[in-house]
Amino acid sequence: MKKSGLLLGSGVLFLGLLYLIHFLLPYDFNDILRVVTIILIIATLALSGTMVSGDRMRANQAIDPSSRDRNMVNSWSMLLFSLPVYVVMIVSYLWG
After folding, report:
1. CB neighbours (10 Å) of residue 1?
2. Which of 64, 78, 72 is nearest to 48 (CA)?
3. Which residues cross the membrane (predicted)?
4. What DSSP line would sit under 64-85, residue for residue?
5. CA distance readout (Å), 44 to 7, 31, 71
6. Residue 1: band (very low, low, confident or very high) from pLDDT cuts 50, 70, 90
């Protein structure tokens, strides 16, 4: 429970940092948020191992069965970190 709270808090802190950075850059906050969201989605997919072919995934699991559990932990950690960014992006899209 502590790890999830720490990850969510880090995500909120990251979101606040993005908001402050948007004052320094000539871009709109929604544009910055959109780019960061795409980067976070790609990073989550890469950490989970979903972006490799099925043959390679089966070979990796046959060699190291614990990699599946590690990939799931990495995916959930990245998702919890990204959750505040996703929520703000959805809210700004619906009511922006």
Report:
1. 5
2. 72
3. 7-26, 32-52, 73-95
4. -TTHHHHHHHHHHHHHHHHHHH
5. 14, 20, 10
6. low
* Closest among 12, 10, 3 to 88, alpha carbons compared: 12
CA 36 to chain centre: 9
d(CA 9, CA 26): 27
Q: Please report, for the chain, the start and end positions of each structural domain, with discontinuous segments joined by +.
A: 2-95
Q: What is the pLDDT of residues 27-82, one digit of tens each?
A: 998 899 999 999 988 888 887 777 777 777 777 677 777 767 777 787 788 888 88
Residue type, 7: L
One-letter amino acid for residue 72 of the chain: M
How does DSSP assign 5-62, residue by residue? HHHHHHHHHHHHHHHHHHHHSSS-HHHHHHHHHHHHHHHHHHHHTTTS-HHHHHHHHH
